[in-house]
Amino acid sequence: MTVTAGTPIELVEGVYATLVDRANAGRARFGRPLTLAEKILLNHLGDPTEPAERGGTYNDFHPDRVAMQDATAQMALLQFMTAGLPTTAVPSTVHCDHLISAKVGASIDLGVAIDTNREVYDFLRSVSAKYGIGFWGPGSGIIHQVVLENYAFPGGMMIGTDSHTPNAGGLGMVAIGVGGADAVDVMTGFPFNVRWPKVIGVKLTGSLSGWSSPKDVILEVARGHQRYFGVRALDGKLLPRYLAVVNTALAPENIAKALRSRGFNVLGIHPIGGPVAES
């Protein structure tokens, strides 16, 4: 497969080609059903037979792609250049959004950023062109939204040098924010090593009221967990929303769309007026 800045259909087909067998083997190994996140992780394991324990083992994974923002991409690309490779091992992209300061207005702030960071942008653009890396210049969009709309796909796995990389999880990916060194490892063909995450199950029942939205529910789940277990309580954990039965005054199809956009798999509309969803 030729490496490109986009997500080649061959890459997606390759992920799906092994997903069922890897998931079946995982169920047999663990002796229980798997969450969607676990299926994706098992499918991207470097060695599908190696031990895997929630919160216990460190495992090697092979993500499908890498994304970098302009502040962190500089050192990552400098390191990649020393590898002596003609192109990246997986599709990779650079997104110029973090060096733009919002002070006056979009057009003025963009012009100031281009003038102030011209040398950085020229470097990122030229290196990206040389090594087949996708380049999203200043003004082309915010990294986590561009990745969601252009590169995310259900069942995939990606890493990004931006804390908002998990936004790609809205389309059913396992997407993890990392440092530049981890990005370089994957771009040069080495595995991404990380501890197998713990999984927190959340059951949602009842109804949304007033000005509440599905996003408010998700934020409250995260806030409540940190309140009881500490500020870093969510480190090394995944939060698959495994069941949601929600009664809402909003049109059922609208709330179903909202749930899907936040990573839920909507199974149908509950008779009380809310969608039933699981991961």
Determine the N-to-C terminus distance: 31 Å
The computed structural class is alpha/beta
Main beta sheet: 5 strands, parallel
Compute the CA-based radius of gyration: 20 Å
Overall body shape: globular
Encode the helix/strand succession as letters.
Answer: HHEEHEHHEHEEHEEEHEEHEE
Report low-confidence residues grouped into runs of 5 or more. Answer: 241-252, 266-279
Helix content: 25-40%
How many E-type strands?
Answer: 13
Mean pLDDT over all positions: 81
Strand order of the largest sheet: 4-3-2-5-6
Number of helices: 9
Strand content: 15-25%
Explained architecture:
- The chain has helices at residues 9-30, 36-43, 70-81, 106-116, 118-131, 143-150, 180-187, 214-229, 252-261; strands at residues 58-61, 65-69, 92-95, 134-136, 157-161, 174-177, 192-195, 198-199, 203-204, 237-238, 243-245, 265-269, 275-278.
- The chain is built from nine helices and 13 strands.
- It has 279 residues and is α/β, with parallel strands linked by helices.
- The strands form four sheets. A five-stranded parallel β-sheet has the order 4-3-2-5-6.
- The protein starts with 8 loop residues before the first helix and ends with a strand.
Please sum up the structure shown:
This protein is an alpha/beta fold and 279 residues long. It contains 9 helices and 13 strands.
What descriptive keywords fit this protein?
five-stranded parallel β-sheet, globular, alpha/beta, disordered C terminus, 279 residues, four-stranded mixed β-sheet
SSE layout and pairing:
Blueprint: H1 9-30, H2 36-43, E1 58-61, E2 65-69, H3 70-81, E3 92-95, H4 106-116, H5 118-131, E4 134-136, H6 143-150, E5 157-161, E6 174-177, H7 180-187, E7 192-195, E8 198-199, E9 203-204, H8 214-229, E10 237-238, E11 243-245, H9 252-261, E12 265-269, E13 275-278
Parallel strand pairs: 2-3, 2-5, 3-4, 5-6, 8-10, 9-11
Antiparallel strand pairs: 1-7, 11-13, 12-13
